[in-house]
Amino acid sequence: MEMPRDTFQDVSDDALLVLYANGDASAARALTLRLTPKVYGHAFRVLGDRAEAEDVAQEALIRLWKQATDWRQGEAKVTTWLYRVVANLCTDRLRKGRGVALDAIPEPEDDAESPAEAMQQKSRQAALQEALMELPDRQRQAVVLRHIEGMSNPEIAQIMDIGVEAVESLTARGKRALAKILAGRKDELGYSDD
Question: Where would I find the RNA polymerase sigma-70 region domain in this sequence (predicted)?
Answer without folding.
Answer: 34-98
